[in-house]
């Protein structure tokens, strides 16, 4: 018995007969065989060439460097025989024209605001969508500048009103820090990288090690993206040339106060001139000073101005037309714009997209054509606020509504375990992909090597914000995945002039083994999604996961002394549970003989399936932010990147707005009711197709 | 009902009729009245005078400065009319004659080893009882150098054998660090004060604030005191002139490797030249470096030599003879030697002892004479290893055995809450003293203001080591108390040249309000103990507390997978519980009419009571350290200061030596059996006295 058991597992992968959702039972082996050949194509040497070409110079959005990268990618796509073009938008991308920070009291210090090795193509250190301003005020140290920190300040009787706050990076998306500072009455905001968080406290600094050196600065956008991402002047519509635009003063996502990131080299002279109470231990960083809150006597003048003109945003799009379901799209995107050279962010991911494209081209040369249309995108303007992808989804919204089945995203890729997040309807699909590919170092299956740990517990985490899936998932309702390796390549060069090839080669995926593996993941993911007779969505995971979210919120409500009546949602979840099981029963029956079913009989099934995620949108969006329409996931209003699940309800509970929470239950129930109907319809259509 | 209740509490203290254990019911009021007058005598101005006189110059043990302080105190005692003298011992007090620390690889650095403002009377920075030595070896950073840290090093595959370790101060008594280094094969040990622990991370450094500046060094003894304290050459007997002595090589409490304390100014250049793994986050201090474990490449040469001659140790003893129970002693001591000026340690406490003495002199002038003999002691050589008090208890052991009822200790005193620890038989007594005096700042009773929190939960913590009660309690079996204010005066000048009057006045008990209050506590404690018709011991707390220790050890044993059979101890605790209740019943009966009982009828009762603590000793002491004879308390072998309760059993359990643990149960039971018999005998004698 024991020997048989062992033998079974030993031979199983070799025979490659593991089930693949969406394919007929008698198609599994041929699909495994095809993927085995396909995943042998990506080469590390090619990744190296793309990276050296794209990350050798600064290429922030709107710059000549960015145009050069876009045209290089366009040339490759065309060389590989794709229908490819650059789609251009004109978006508000502010560039700094004047920056100064000076401590005027109790001693003078003029901040350097400069990373060593600056060249003229390099955008200076700044936070995009800070206000223009010239303010002088005493400084207050606010730790990470998150809501809990303001509660601590209140206990210390420290008010930031009329002050300039200095927050450290970390523990929230950066844009939350100035947003909260502004809401609390501060007139300016500095954000610095404490060596405790990604400097010498963690390890040696570059060039001796991967961590942030004394003059390294984290650039980044502080646009109020939880309200809406993309061009602040065109919320909900595309910033194509000639489009109508808001007046800048009316754009709610632009900060009203000046904000600037600084290095710890520049922060130390300011922080050591603060008096007031010694801050709590958890607030203290690793600078050799006594951390105090202020206010003052350190008083600083922060003076910033920007070029507020529109600049070109260049999305590079390649298309491989589908041979059977031409109007069903599988999309895959990664941004190409960087803050400076961006070897890691985003070129490590963009290179993988190119190598995936080359692999598909090679497969086409060998005679393969996908059943569904594959669209590849290298987005521009991601760093400013997901601009290229957001404007593109807004421009193509009507077509996406009709045609988009799945959007796959990647961004920086590095050394470490695979991370996977996305729509719960794709969890079973993704588990199978990860089951069938091996980690390049452990040689165990990726499923066993996921960041969460052992394979059995694999879950697809919900998506908040932070990369280009936002427009697809939260606005357009396209089922999405976000994939990438990382976690073992800790460093402190994020968004700085130090994110260069030398850093990446020495401290991240230097041998590009994870890059090659990600290309294999992308190849498998794309060809399965493109070729499956039936799109591999599954709905039981959705009902189970949402049920867990409901329980979680109920606990939170109980803690806060409120009650939320989830009856309406529970009823729909029970119905969805039944519908998901019925769907799987019919699907299993069909899959025994799907090879003999004519593809045209499956068109309506697949259309019903790809629209399922759309049923989770409500047209008028979430409370206080209608651009975000998905009722199951959204980035948190005060976390920024961090996801809030069932956001309408959860954020009302967080704020103890009990009436709003109970109203939102009905809206979630409405979305789930539409999902149930959609799954039932898909089940009916499958039955029909099988007859 | 409610009004009566409130009224009761309001008028209660005013009428001063709260019960006082050991006094007859009709004596409570007069005792309260007398204490009220007595506690009005101590003056802050006087404390200031003593402190300025005693802390103006360095006065380490064996020095001319120490002799001057001793003679000043002797003069005061005599001026106040006491029988007083200096008892001189000759003990091994090593002084450093040559110290050097140099990094030889990978860059040269010669450590300063010098606090600013050194003068020629100031003893250089050193660790007493380090070995003489000259060693050169790669450095290893061992965090706090406690047993758990060596477990972490083992996981990192780092061996300290043949290396010099550098540990930071904190998380254990300092002597544990070189002891463990030596046991693990290190050839030398440096101990430094990380700014994380008492430097700028905690607050501003001196002179701007109370914390340790960059060149501040914590001196201190590293004698292996958990084995035995006092002169290493005379374990168990007094180092009087002419006494026999061990050869230095045979003294087990002297380290075999060179050890030296250094400042963080001197530590940083060494630590930043370590490579090897980045240490775990909890190991990282607040220096602006990446903390790594080594070994090396930092290689240091540590060269130390000492003057190993004997030097005079001058205990100043004053006696107020008792009028009724002349051969029952109440003792109170505080050391007078310091590492440098010692404004806080020990002069803040020594000054309180002097003001308590003056108060007693004033009471005598008014006609009072204590019933019992009061002996006041200013000990010398405490800093080297409790030398003056240990040698004194060894010298007077036979007389202490017969006469000592209670020893009261204090040491540094400062701003904050009262801390009280001691023999559990004195818990009820101490609770009453603290009930009857007010905190100088909160004006609530000290009982409500104890460090542990609200009064109802007051417990007298068990005593480990760290001050001069050790010889009395652990070796001579004299019931002991250790009292002092502190905790709100955090600083970083401990054992450094910065422990001076300016620091004390600005950052600790500047107005001496806590000093005055401690004098009031001492006055009340002394006159109650000296005058109570029946010594105020109580035994129920002992049985209850030891019962809790047993439960605690049983849990630990269970966790470690062993079993200890406590049956013998449990049986004695049950018996003690009954005996304690019977004792209290008889005592209560006697107290209703004790004023009419002739004192000579109570002599035997009081003798029985004062011998009760002695029953908890066993003549052959604890395993591996016979000098420590108390079976209920001892300092931990690997904590140093921290107490281990039921030490024979507990340390065997900690080490998973289950046979030894079970043997030790019988020894504890033997001690408790003697205690039961003693309490039963005291009960019988009380009954007899009352007849």
Give a description of the structure.
The structure is a homodimer of 691-residue chains. Chain A has helices spanning 2-15, 28-38, 44-54, 64-79, 147-155, 176-183, 195-198, 264-271, 343-365, 382-385, 387-395, 397-403, 427-435, 469-475, 501-507, 513-531, 540-559, 567-591, 603-612, 647-654, 658-690; strands at 83-92, 95-105, 109-110, 127-128, 133-141, 164-168, 188-192, 220-221, 259-262, 299-307, 310-320, 325-335, 372-379, 404-409, 416-422, 479-487, 633-635, 643-645. With 691 residues, chain A is of the alpha/beta class. Chain A has three domains: 2-88 and 327-484 and 495-531, 3-Layer(aba) Sandwich (Aminopeptidase); 95-307, Glucose Oxidase, domain 1 (3-Layer(bba) Sandwich); 540-690, Transcription Elongation Factor S-II, Chain A. In chain A, helix 3 (44-54) crosses helix 9 (343-365). The radius of gyration of chain A is 25 Å and the shape is globular. Mean pLDDT of chain A is 94; it is low at 1-15. The interface between A and B is medium-sized, with 16 and 16 residues.
